[in-house]
């Protein structure tokens, strides 16, 4: 049976494969650079041997000229090799970030389940950067291998014992370096997990800062973040200690190996087996070998961290989809919405028919019932039993992009984004969308009148520069401007005053006249403009009638909307 690939190996393979050209260019130029570096000691030895020992001034000049040419060549090779390697690194990281964002924002969902936004942001930045750095590590590894190979060949030509010492000792050092990188890989993965958790909690706390201050929970929030941040710091220090320990041991082994090479070379020169120039070249080559061997220590560390980050990225990319795409299409949307025996979450066998152009209110005694209903209508999840149909076609049979263009679910906690107020309203609007009418009908025109630059005023991220009521009106305007054939609104007026709520209800009724609208709300003002209302209690429909009749005839309904 074929052994399964470790998590993240495919991520690494695709990251490197996507930058094959830059990696190849960087590797070839790096090989040229390392070859030049390895030849420098040889040329110095030849200059000493021919020019100093033999007393030939012309030969000394010639070899010095050759040495200068080699220096120029290796300098330019290093410059362009580093450029190609760095380009491969940042491009691979960029492409990974794009893949992660595409997966997180995919209509099928599922990738963000169980992960805080800050954790996903950390994965898309730090982890992607570490995986991208693997391409540079490969360029360096190939270049360093070339330097070692050239150095070994030169030493073999000078002395077989010296050459064999390098050829046999170098693989042993690399193998030991690989073993030493294992603890670093494990601790690096833990470090990134803790850092992602800390980032996620920090983003979560900042997003809810006003709420925390309002309920006086700042100290508890600070304590929570301090605890998680301390865990992250501990993991980072452990990873740093592992990296320092690995580098220290590898440096010590490398130094011992080079001292052995110099010792053997010195004894050979003392016996007359090699000349003075060759001894100088051998010692200089031994010093040169510090570079490639040190680079392998860095490469091992980068690969260890890259493997750990690749495994975290693979977890996000391989996350199962919450729902699947359907093959069906809608040639024309009439707007008939039907729920048949719908069971999901707290819902149990819900039946509901909404005719084209009808405005229906849905009141839920338990907020969990409303949440479950919205999840199914938006196809964030599929029912456990039963079905939701749009114009006679089950939602599971439709493509998600087409479905969400026909049936828009605007949830209560919808956020605004950084940009002007007008850009927020027009985010999902088409070329003929009733943008100005949406601004007026939602009461957003009053918000526009209070802002210094009107609708062109810049709104900060998540709309934090606006009050809660202002954000709700802008969010409602955005939903109305989308002009969807079927619009589902969840509590669009909980943060506005009673007068504004009535105005929003009237504007909504007027703008959505003739279009199918479902209002999932307990607001009397909004329910008053509906054609009829259904009451959900304990997961089932227990009543359906006009708002006025239900208020007068149904105690549970009256308690739910007027209490």
UniProtKB/TrEMBL annotation:
GO MF, one annotated term = ATP binding
Against CDD domains, the record matches this protein to: ABC_6TM_exporters
Q: What is its main location?
A: membrane
Q: Which residues cross the membrane?
A: 23-48, 60-78, 131-156, 162-180, 248-268
> Per its UniProt entry, which superkingdom is the organism in?
Bacteria
Q: Which residues form the ABC transporter domain?
A: 311-563
Question: Entry's InterPro entries?
Answer: ABC1_TM_dom, ABC1_TM_sf, ABC_transporter-like_ATP-bd, ABC_transporter-like_CS, P-loop_NTPase, Type_1_exporter
Return any one Pfam family short name: ABC_membrane
Q: Which PROSITE patterns match?
A: ABC_TM1F, ABC_TRANSPORTER_1, ABC_TRANSPORTER_2
Q: Where in the cell is it found?
A: Cell membrane
Q: How does it sit in the membrane?
A: Multi-pass membrane protein
Q: Which UniProt keywords apply?
A: ATP-binding, Membrane, Nucleotide-binding, Transmembrane, Transmembrane helix
In this chain the ABC transmembrane type-1 domain maps to 24-305
The name this protein goes by in its record = ABC transporter ATP-binding protein/permease
Record the organism.
Answer: Streptomyces cinnabarinus
Organism lineage reads as: Bacteria, Bacillati, Actinomycetota, Actinomycetes, Kitasatosporales
């Amino acid at each position: 049976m074929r052994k399964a690939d470790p998590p993240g190996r495919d991520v690494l393979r695709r990251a490197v494969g996507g930058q094959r050209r830059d990696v190849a260019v960087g590797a070839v130029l790096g090989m040229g650079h390392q070859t030049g570096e390895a030849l420098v000691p040889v040329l110095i030895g030849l200059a000493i041997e021919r020019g100093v020992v033999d007393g030939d001034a012309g030969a000394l000049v010639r070899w010095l000229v050759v040495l200068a040419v080699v220096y120029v060549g290796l300098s330019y090779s290093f410059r362009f090799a580093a450029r190609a390697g760095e380009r491969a690194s940042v491009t691979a990281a960029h492409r990974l970030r794009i893949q992660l964002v595409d997966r997180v924002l995919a209509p099928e969902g599922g990738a963000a389940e169980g992960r805080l936004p800050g954790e996903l942001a950390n994965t898309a930045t730090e982890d992607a950067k570490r995986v991208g750095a693997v391409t540079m590590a490969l360029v360096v590894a190939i270049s360093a291998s070339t330097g070692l190979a050239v150095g070994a060949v030169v030493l073999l030509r000078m002395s077989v014992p010296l050459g064999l010492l390098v050829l046999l000792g170098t693989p042993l050092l690399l193998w030991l370096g690989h073993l030493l990188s294992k603890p670093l890989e494990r601790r690096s993965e833990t470090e990134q997990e803790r850092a992602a958790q800390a980032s996620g909690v920090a983003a979560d706390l900042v997003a809810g800062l006003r709420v925390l201050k309002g309920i006086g929970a700042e100290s508890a929030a600070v304590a929570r973040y301090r605890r998680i941040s301390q865990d992250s710091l501990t993991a980072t220090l452990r990873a740093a200690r592992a990296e320092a320990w690995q580098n220290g041991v590898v440096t010590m082994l490398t130094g011992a190996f080079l001292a052995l090479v110099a010792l053997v070379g010195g004894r050979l020169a003392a016996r007359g087996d090699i000349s003075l120039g060759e001894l100088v070249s051998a010692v200089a080559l031994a010093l040169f070998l510090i570079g490639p061997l040190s680079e392998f220590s860095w490469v091992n560390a980068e690969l260890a961290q890259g493997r750990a980050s690749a495994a975290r990225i693979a977890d996000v990319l391989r996350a199962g989809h919450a729902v699947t795409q359907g093959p069906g299409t809608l040639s024309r949307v009439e707007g008939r919405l039907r729920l048949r025996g719908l069971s999901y979450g707290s819902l149990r066998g819900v039946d509901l028919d909404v005719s084209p152009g009808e405005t229906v209110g849905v009141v839920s005694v338990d907020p969990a019932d409303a949440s479950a209903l919205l999840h199914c209508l938006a196809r964030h999840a599929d029912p456990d039993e039963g079905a939701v149909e749009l114009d006679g076609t089950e939602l599971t049979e439709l493509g998600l992009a087409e479905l969400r263009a026909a049936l828009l679910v605007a949830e209560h906690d919808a956020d605004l984004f950084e940009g002007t107020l007008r850009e927020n309203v027009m985010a999902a609007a088409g070329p003929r969308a009733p943008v100005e009418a949406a601004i007026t009908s939602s009461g957003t025109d009053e918000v526009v009148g209070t802002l210094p630059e009107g609708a062109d005023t810049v709104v900060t991220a998540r709309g934090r520069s606006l009050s809660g009521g202002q954000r709700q009106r802008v969010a409602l305007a955005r939903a109305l401007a989308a002009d969807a054939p079927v619009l589902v609104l969840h509590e669009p007026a909980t943060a506005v005053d009673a007068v504004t709520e009535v105005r929003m209800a009237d504007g909504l009724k007027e703008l959505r006249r003739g279009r199918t609208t479902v209002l999932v709300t307990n607001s009397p003002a909004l329910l008053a403009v509906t054609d009829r209302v259904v009451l959900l209690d304990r997961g089932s429909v227990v009543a359906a009638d006009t708002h006025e009749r239900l208020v007068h005839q149904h105690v549970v309904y009256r308690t739910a909307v007027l209490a």
